[in-house]
Design brief:
The complex is a heterotrimer.
Chain A: H1 6-20, E1 26-30, H2 33-37, H3 40-53, E2 59-63, E3 75-79, E4 83-87, H4 92-103, E5 112-116, H5 125-129, H6 140-143, H7 161-166, H8 171-179, H9 182-192, H10 204-213, E6 220-225, H11 234-241, H12 243-257, E7 261-266, H13 271-286, E8 302-307, H14 317-324, E9 348-352, H15 353-365, H16 367-371, E10 374-375, E11 378-379, E12 381-388, E13 394-399, H17 404-411, E14 421-426, E15 432-435, H18 445-450, E16 459-464, H19 469-483, H20 489-506, H21 512-528, H22 532-536, H23 539-547, H24 549-557, E17 571-574, H25 584-588, E18 594-595, E19 603-604, H26 614-618, E20 624-627
Parallel strand pairs in A: 1-2, 6-7, 6-9, 7-8, 12-16
Antiparallel strand pairs in A: 1-3, 3-4, 4-5, 10-11, 12-13, 14-15, 14-16, 17-20, 18-19
Helix pairs in contact in A: 3-4, 8-12, 8-15, 9-10, 9-12, 11-12, 11-13, 12-15, 19-20, 20-21, 21-23
Chain B: E1 2-6, E2 9-13, H1 19-25, E3 49-54, E4 58-61, E5 72-74, H2 78-94, H3 99-107, H4 132-141, E6 147-149, E7 156-158, H5 173-177, E8 185-188, E9 191-194, E10 199-202, E11 204-205, E12 212-213, H6 218-224, H7 229-233, H8 236-250
Parallel strand pairs in B: 1-5
Antiparallel strand pairs in B: 1-2, 3-4, 3-5, 6-7, 8-9, 9-10, 11-12
Helix pairs in contact in B: 2-3
Chain C: H1 14-26, H2 31-41, H3 45-54, E1 66-71, H4 74-78, H5 81-92, E2 105-110, E3 122-124, E4 127-129, H6 134-142
Parallel strand pairs in C: 1-2
Antiparallel strand pairs in C: 1-3, 3-4
Helix pairs in contact in C: 1-2, 2-3
Classes of the chains: A alpha/beta, B alpha+beta, C alpha+beta.
């Protein structure tokens, strides 16, 4: 069906509504990549099998990610008359029991995490039936979240354009094409205060304005989905969970600047995201929401997906464009900015996935609504992947201005059991490590930059007392060294040498002069590199030198690793009183350095031990001890 | 014309001039390896860093920075000097045998590099990855016979598959433009050897004087200039002689 | 303008798409296919070769039947991804970047699979495995090499 009029869209929306709340049970499994990694595939199969066996008529949906990845695999069950209940940490066996309960018309208690309130309805019956069940937004993980970008993630079938429409999708495009001029759209984006969510934080409206005024006829739209930061998966989740939101945003952008072709450049490591966005483009085209004469107007817009090929530097916009053009992913000096001279030298509007996903929400609810979220100069929401040594890992969307404390202690639930959180790393290889005593800082562009890190695209990796900050700095430098394109001298030669110094430090072979040299090179790479990646590459080193110099000093002067990580500076022993002689470490030691009889305490041969800590990690009795 | 201030003195240059050229205009020579007037600005070696203090304060590579009215530049700011020295130190440690880099470094006051790589990495490397060879071959000649391989510290220049390039016309522009002498072109008998590209071009013997020359570059000239066939079959020297004789006869 | 005129550029993304196509059909980039593709796309061979050699997704060497991608993203790294890699290298007797002699597995490291909440994570072929522990890896690989007696240290663990 081609959607040509508002009433056509109304019909699509009604269909979607029926799919979301059918007159039979609807069971949807979180099947984004993180869910699949937790075993959601097996849960999905078990649900289908059980339903087939019992001949239970239900709708089984593979959905995106609702955010609390810690609790994966997640199953969202909607029983007519009962509302929606979210089940956590499902197993294939649990899935079987779940279906049996549903078949007998009951909601099981087992694994129930929370209920999901539905628009315009009261406390659902499920809350009465399952005593103690709270609404999802009462969970500490969700209490302070505000979902704009992730408004549909995990709640709809990401393949279904009908369900997207049922959640208000394509209303904004309708509004934009039929009621707003391109100029008015740009004005609304400007007034909303939206800033680039890829990490740069450039005012989005201003970028659109510059691009729309740039000389030339052909223009392009690009969605930067080359999410290369290690420890971050916001963009992947949006593409896997709500691809139509990105498409709608890009289409509105195309209309606003007068472009008829858009590209989504997706990271190679995200095959599922590529499938989902491709499918969504196909469906949108079938429905006349992409292609020629969109919504009955004379506006034409198409989107093509380009699969990256494993190069972090392509996340830099000029490198991404060079890669699209078929060349090496090498950045070039700016200006000229892509908004003036981008793909094939034509004005090109390039924004991050999350920026595009915000656009439709802003147009629909108005710029004032968006500007009212967050703080002054930091309007709206941003998505973070909260991972590492934190109790609740997952994808979190917050209004900007929330403090790091509220994020890590409140939403994240603090450190892992019994461990003290030491720092949070934001912004990936371009960012820095912020120590716990600065967790009172608000999460916004200026505060994080001032603290020596950056807001970045949204990676937040929590580190605890067992994380060595020198090792972390070295980890990032190795990353930069491997991912630098190699074009300019500071990034290519400087990163390599900084890595060499950091290696000397963790091996206990560095001198105090090495630290001086390290800082000198870091400053030079920061100021003399050609592109943003090189200029920010020393941040992990500079920020750890700034806040954790004691750890550097311990490595350099005392030849000691306080966190007990650096292999050359630690020893491992087995506490004979705790060891039960189970033999697990003996079997798993990669170098055969552990000896002992069954049920008798084991010992580690110090001559063979490489201090890899495998035994320390797996010992069920925590009998392996690190001597620092 | 655009007027800017370089080291506290006004300098006027035409609009569109690159800062590197304006600095030269002011009588100051900055070290530079990757810039060539005939090629598009590139900004890779980061040797020509200068400090601008207005309209804002920043270290910039002068070879990619177009001049603007009111720009205030200090080539002798400590930060700029430091940035140039570090780049030279690193290039010295990359190419310890290069006299060109050593001399350039000496001019900037650098006599030794603190960044010696472990002895296992000591090399005869002369290439600084300025990319001039790749760019001249692609942008000016149009043969695009060579390119970069790998990335980061693995980056190198070379012919596809590091093997005899079919696209190389043996013009020698790459060797000519290489600032450090990393690319050598050698004629041996009827072979022109470009060792850096693992490429050999078979030369033709000039039917007039017997000297060897490479006929490849003239393949496309033949199409563009429909002269008599035999004109292109002789070496460039004999062509020149022939043309002068024709002119003399015509006089 | 260059002395030798160059034809028009291929469409946006065409070069990457073609390289992906060859790589997924052949498992690597054979020289002959690269040469043919450069002709088809009407771009200089040096340009296509440079692109192929730049991106880590492409290999000029044939790969094993299954590619094991060990994630070394930040979250996986600080939660033991490096030790997982060592274990895998020991188990299979190859280093990252190498292929087992029987052609079954190629071990690679990857800078983030985007499943950070499940760290540490590996991907074998198309399947992603999260919350892995070193002592579970051996069992996992048996699934891909059924019927083979466990190698040193791969015995089933009762954990």
């Amino acid at each position: 069906m081609k959607i040509k009029t508002p009433s056509d869209l109304e019909k699509l929306r009604d269909q979607g509504q029926c799919m979301l709340s059918p007159q039979k049970p609807r069971v949807s499994v979180g099947m984004a990549t993180c869910g699949l990694a937790a075993g959601a595939g097996a849960v999905f199969d078990a649900l289908r099998q059980a339903a087939d066996n019992l001949r239970l008529d239900l709708t089984l949906v593979s959905a995106g990610c609702i955010g609390c990845c810690q609790e994966e695999p997640l199953v969202d069950v909607r029983m007519p008359g009962f509302g929606r209940v979210l089940y956590a940490r499902m197993t294939p066996e649990g899935a079987d029991r779940l279906i049996r309960s549903l078949a007998s018309g009951e909601l099981p208690h087992e694994n129930a995490l929370a209920y999901i309130p539905e628009e315009g309805s009261d406390t659902p019956k499920s809350a009465e039936v399952l005593s103690g069940l709270v609404p999802i937004n009462a969970l500490p993980f969700y209490a302070k979240q505000h979902k704009v970008i992730l408004r549909n993630s995990g709640l709809i079938d990401p393949q279904s354009i009908e369900e997207y429409a049922a959640r208000g999708g394509y209303k904004s495009l309708l509004l934009a094409l039929l009621q707003l001029s391109p100029h008015e759209i740009i004005d609304e984006i400007t007034r909303s205060g939206l800033r680039g969510r890829g990490g740069g934080g450039f005012p989005t409206g201003k970028k659109w304005e510059v691009c729309s005024r740039a000389a030339g006829t052909a223009r392009f739209i690009i969605c930067n989905a080359d999410e290369g930061d290690p420890g971050a998966y916001m963009d992947r989740t949006v593409l896997e969970s709500d691809p139509y939101a990105v498409i709608e945003g890009m289409t509105i952008g195309g209309y606003a600047i007068g472009a008829s072709q858009g590209y989504v450049y997706v990271r190679n490591e995200y095959p599922l995201a590529i499938d989902r966005i491709n499918h969504a483009i196909e469906r949108s085209t079938e429905c006349g929401l992409l292609g020629e004469d969109i919504l009955g107007t004379d506006f034409t817009f198409s989107i093509q997906v380009i699969r990256g090929a494993g190069a972090f530097v392509c996340g830099e916009e000029t490198a991404l464009i060079a890669s699209l053009e078929g060349g090496l992913g090498e950045p070039r000096p700016r200006p000229p900015y892509p908004a003036v001279s981008g793909l094939w030298g034509k004005p090109t509007l390039i924004n991050n996935v999350k920026t595009w996903a915000s656009v439709a929400a802003i147009i629909r609810k108005g710029p004032e609504w968006y500007a009212g979220i967050g703080t002054k100069g930091n309007a709206g929401t941003a998505v973070f992947s909260l991972v590492g040594k934190v109790a609740n890992t997952g994808l979190v969307e917050i209004p900007l201005g929330l403090t790091l404390e509220e994020m890590i202690q409140g939403i994240g639930g603090g450190g892992l059991a019994g461990k003290r959180v030491k720092a949070v790393q934001t912004g990936g290889p371009s960012g820095g490590c912020i120590p716990a005593d600065l967790f009172h800082l608000p999460i916004d562009y200026a505060s994080l930059t001032q603290a020596g890190s950056i807001m970045g695209s949204g990676g937040m990796v929590v580190m605890d007392e067992d994380t060595c900050m020198v090792d972390v700095a070295r980890y990032f430098l190795r990353f930069t060294m491997e991912e630098s394109c190699g074009k300019c001298t500071p990034c290519r030669e400087g990163a390599r040498y900084m890595y060499a110094i950091l290696t000397r430090i963790i091996e206990g072979e560095a001198t105090p002069e090495d630290l001086v040299l390290l800082e000198e090179i870091a400053m030079w790479v920061k100021e003399a590199s050609l592109c943003g990646l090189g200029q920010t590459a020393p941040n992990p080193v500079l920020s750890t030198l700034r806040y954790f110099r004691d750890e550097y000093d311990a490595h350099v002067r005392e030849k000691r690793c306080p966190a007990g990580v650096c292999r050359a500076l630690i020893k491992l022993t087995i506490n004979a009183e705790r060891c039960t002689g189970c033999g697990l470490c003996l079997r798993e030691c990669p170098v055969g350095a552990i000896r002992g009889k069954k049920k008798a305490p084991h010992i580690i041969d110090p001559d063979l031990c490489t201090h890899c800590r495998t035994c320390y990690d797996i010992c069920p009795e925590k009998a392996v001890e690190i001597v620092r | 014309m655009i007027t800017l201030t370089i080291n506290r003195r006004p300098v006027s240059v035409p609009q569109g001039t690159l800062l590197l050229k304006a600095v030269e205009e002011a009588g100051i020579t900055l070290p530079s390896l990757c810039h060539h007037d005939a090629l598009a600005p590139y900004g890779a070696c980061r040797l020509c860093m200068v400090m601008i203090t207005a309209p804002y304060r920043a270290l910039v590579a002068s070879c990619t920075y177009p001049v603007e009215e009111g720009l205030v530049v200090e080539t002798d700011a400590p930060e700029a000097v430091q940035a140039r020295r570090l780049a030279l130190e690193f290039l010295m440690s990359r190419c310890p045998r290069s006299d060109v880099i050593r001399k350039m470094a000496e001019k900037e006051g650098v006599t030794a590099s603190r960044f010696g790589m472990p002895s296992t990495e000591q090399t005869d490397e002369l290439c600084v990855l300025c990319g001039l060879c790749v760019r001249v071959c692609r942008e000016l000649i149009g043969a695009a016979a060579i390119g970069f391989t790998g990335r980061g510290s693995e980056r190198r220049v070379g012919a596809p598959f590091d093997f005899q390039s079919d696209a190389c016309i043996g013009c020698g522009a790459c060797a000519e433009v290489c600032p450090t002498g990393a690319i050598q072109m050698e004629d041996r008998g009827n072979q022109r050897i470009l060792r850096a590209w693992n490429t050999r071009i078979t030369l033709s013997a000039c039917p007039e004087c017997g000297r060897f020359f490479t006929p490849e570059p003239t393949r496309f000239l033949k199409k563009m200039l429909p002269e008599i066939e035999t004109y292109w079959e002789v070496c460039p020297d004999c062509r020149r002689q022939k043309t002068s004789r024709q002119w003399l006869n015509a006089q | 303008m260059p002395l030798i005129a160059q034809p028009d550029h291929p469409p946006a993304g065409a070069v990457l798409a073609r390289l992906h196509q060859i790589h997924s059909a052949k498992g690597y980039l054979p020289e002959a296919d690269i040469r043919a593709a450069a002709d088809d796309l009407a771009i200089p061979l040096s340009r296509l070769y440079s692109a192929a050699a730049f991106y880590s997704a492409f290999s000029f060497q044939p790969k094993g039947r299954y590619t094991i991608q060990v994630c070394l993203g930040t979250a996986c790294y600080i939660r033991g991804g490096d030790r997982l890699l060592e274990k895998i290298e020991t188990l299979l007797g190859v280093k990252a970047g190498e292929t087992t002699p029987d052609g079954m597995f190629t071990v690679e490291t990857v800078h983030c699979l985007g499943s950070c909440s499940m760290s540490p994570v590996i991907r074998v072929g198309e399947e992603t495995y999260g919350r892995l522990k070193v002592n579970l890896v051996g069992r996992l690989f048996k699934k891909y090499r059924p019927g083979e007696p466990g190698q040193k240290g791969v015995e089933e663990q009762g954990t």
